[in-house]
C-alpha cells in the first residue's frame, strides 16, 4: 500500500520537475515578454503545485503527518502566480514593450487609445442589462 | 493609472492577506518547538500589510489598522522589558523565564511559557519598525 502511494508521490514530483523544466525552456525559446510570461506563469505554477502535492502525499503516507502548510502553499501559489503574471504583462505593456513581430491582434491598444474605455463595438458586445 | 484597473490584484489581495496573517499567527505560536518565532511572524505580518498597501494605498492600511506604528514599536519594547524585569519580583536574575503546565478549557494540557510574552514584544517591535519604515518611505509628500 505504502509503496503504491510512494510511487504516486514520485510520479507527481517528477511531473512537477518536468513542467518546471518546460517552463524554463519556454523562457529561453519564446520571442517576447508576453509569450515568456505565458510560459513562466502557467507551467511553473503547475510544476510547483505538482511538487508540493507529491511532498504532501509522501509525508502523509510515510510519516503519517498531514502537513497543512503544504496545502496552504498549494492554495497560495494557485492564487498568486496568475495575478503576478497578469501584473507583469500589464506593466510591460504600459511601459511600451513591443509585441512579437508575428502577433496579429492587439485589442488592448485600441482600448488604451480610447482613453481607458472599451471600444464602441466592445461596448455593444458587453452591454449591461437594462434595469427597469 | 485609472482607478479600479487593479481589480485582479485588489480582489486577490483581499483573500491572500488573510492567508498570510494566519500563517504569521501560526509562525508566532509555533516558535518554541519548530522554526518560527516573533521576528519572522512580525516580518510576515508586515508583508501582509505591505501587500494591502500595494494593492490599495497606504490610507487603506491606516483605515484597516488605525494605530500609530511608532507606538506599536514602543509598546513591543516595553513588553519585552517588562518580561525581563518581572523576574526580579520572584528573586530571579534579569530575563529569567518560567513555564508551567495548565489545563485550558479547549486545548487541554498546555505548556505556557513567559518567553511567549517576550516574543510578543519582539513581534510588536518588528511590525512597528517595518511598517514605520515602509510608510515613511512610501508616503506621497
From TrEMBL, chain A:
Subcellular location as annotated: Membrane
UniProt region (Disordered), positions on chain: 112-132
Transmembrane feature ranges: 6-28, 40-60, 66-85
Organism: Saccharibacillus kuerlensis
Family: Belongs to the CPA3 antiporters (TC 2.A.63) subunit G family.
Alphabetized InterPro entries for the sequence: PhaG_MnhG_YufB (IPR005133)
Alphabetic keyword roster: Antiport, Membrane, Transmembrane, Transmembrane helix, Transport
Name of the protein this chain belongs to: Na(+)/H(+) antiporter subunit G
Topology in membrane: Multi-pass membrane protein
TrEMBL record, chain B:
Main location: membrane
Record-annotated Na+/H+ antiporter MnhB subunit-related protein domain positions: 9-132
Location of this chain's protein in the cell: Cell membrane
Record's keyword annotation contains Cell membrane: yes
Pfam families in the record: MnhB
Keyword set, alphabetical order: Cell membrane, Membrane, Transmembrane, Transmembrane helix
Membrane-related topology note: Multi-pass membrane protein
Positions of transmembrane segments: 12-33, 39-59, 71-95, 115-137
Keyword Membrane attached: yes
Top-rank taxon: Bacteria
NCBIfam families in the record: PRK12573.1 (NF009223)
Family, similarity comment: Belongs to the CPA3 antiporters (TC 2.A.63) subunit B family.
PANTHER family xrefs: NA(+)/H(+) ANTIPORTER SUBUNIT B, NA(+)_H(+) ANTIPORTER SUBUNIT B
Protein name: Na(+)/H(+) antiporter subunit B
Organism: Saccharibacillus kuerlensis
Amino acid at each position: 500500500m505504502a509503496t503504491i502511494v510512494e510511487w504516486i508521490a514520485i510520479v507527481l514530483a517528477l511531473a512537477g520537475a518536468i513542467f518546471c523544466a518546460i517552463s524554463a525552456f519556454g523562457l529561453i525559446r519564446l520571442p517576447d515578454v508576453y509569450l515568456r510570461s505565458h510560459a513562466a506563469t502557467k507551467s511553473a505554477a503547475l510544476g510547483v503545485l505538482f511538487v508540493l502535492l507529491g511532498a504532501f502525499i509522501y509525508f502523509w503516507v510515510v510519516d503519517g503527518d498531514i502537513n497543512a502548510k503544504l496545502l496552504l502553499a498549494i492554495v497560495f501559489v494557485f492564487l498568486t502566480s496568475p495575478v503576478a503574471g497578469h501584473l507583469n504583462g500589464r506593466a510591460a505593456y504600459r511601459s511600451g514593450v513591443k509585441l512579437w513581430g508575428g502577433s496579429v491582434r492587439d485589442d488592448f491598444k485600441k482600448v488604451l487609445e480610447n482613453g481607458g474605455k472599451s471600444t464602441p463595438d466592445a461596448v455593444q458586445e458587453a452591454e449591461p442589462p437594462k434595469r427597469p | 493609472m485609472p482607478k479600479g484597473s487593479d481589480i485582479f490584484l485588489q480582489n486577490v489581495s483581499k483573500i491572500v492577506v488573510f492567508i498570510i496573517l494566519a500563517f504569521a499567527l501560526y509562525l508566532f505560536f509555533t516558535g518554541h518547538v519548530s522554526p518560527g518565532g516573533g521576528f519572522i511572524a512580525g516580518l510576515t505580518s508586515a508583508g501582509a500589510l505591505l501587500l494591502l498597501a500595494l494593492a490599495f494605498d497606504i490610507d487603506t492600511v491606516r483605515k484597516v489598522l488605525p494605530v500609530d506604528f511608532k507606538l506599536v514599536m514602543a509598546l513591543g519594547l516595553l513588553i519585552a522589558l517588562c518580561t525581563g524585569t518581572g523576574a526580579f519580583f520572584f528573586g530571579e536574575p534579569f530575563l529569567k523565564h518560567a513555564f508551567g503546565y495548565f489545563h485550558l478549557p479547549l486545548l487541554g494540557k498546555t505548556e505556557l511559557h513567559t518567553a511567549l510574552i517576550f516574543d510578543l514584544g519582539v513581534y510588536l517591535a518588528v511590525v512597528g519598525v517595518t511598517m514605520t519604515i515602509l510608510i515613511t518611505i512610501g508616503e506621497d509628500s
